[in-house]
């Protein structure tokens, strides 16, 4: 019944019950993740990587991206084996361009870990890129070993991939510039192309042409071809 202030007493919650007489606990249970923290981290980071690869033009199935966390846990378990999380995929327009994504374990990444990864890569000669997802520090010797690979290697911390920043409402859309537009912009701000950082601008150079973007996004994984 509604009183003079517009308050409906029939909606009053008593004894921990919701508006429909259901216990408040049951209403909140839908927002609680009862799974393991590690499986959620792997799920979120792997989904972001798949979205990133799709943005780069790789043949990623939407069913992989849209996989629910429940289905992910049904496939990989509450304590996923990082070896099973690997992704090997070819570029949609150029099948000869193949990239491999490897999730490293929670320990410090040492030279022996890098050697183990490279020894497990099948058809190494056809690989054009490798992405390493780290959960810990990587030693200087391991970094040097990575630098000896004949293909491009990118390394990202798993915590940087828990959220896809490109989906944020405040994330500006990148604009690829033509050579003429690039020269005009450089001239306008009196800067040279070799200057990687400016007070307001940063350049990310691709094989085609550079893109203009805010400096705090210059090293984000989505910004590479």
TrEMBL record:
Coiled-coil segments on the chain, per record:
none
Q: Which UniProt keywords apply?
A: Nucleus
Residues forming the RNA polymerase Rpb5 N-terminal domain are 37-120
Cellular component aspect of the GO annotation: nucleus
Q: Which InterPro entries match?
A: Arch_Rpo5/euc_Rpb5, RNA_pol_Rpb5_N, RNA_pol_Rpb5_N_sf, RNA_pol_subH/Rpb5_C, RPB5-like_sf
Query: Any idea where the RNA polymerase subunit H/Rpb5 C-terminal domain is?
Result: 163-195
Is Nucleus there in the keyword field? yes
Location relative to the cell = Nucleus
GO BP annotations, alphabetical order? DNA-templated transcription
Q: Where is this region: Disordered?
A: 206-225
Highest taxon of the lineage = Eukaryota
Care to name a GO molecular-function term for this sequence? DNA binding
Q: Which family does it belong to?
A: Belongs to the archaeal Rpo5/eukaryotic RPB5 RNA polymerase subunit family.
Q: Which PANTHER family match?
A: DNA-DIRECTED RNA POLYMERASE V SUBUNIT 5A, DNA-DIRECTED RNA POLYMERASES I, II, AND III SUBUNIT RPABC1
Instruction: State the protein's name.
Output: RNA polymerase Rpb5 N-terminal domain-containing protein
Phylogenetic placement of the source organism: Eukaryota, Viridiplantae, Streptophyta, Embryophyta, Tracheophyta
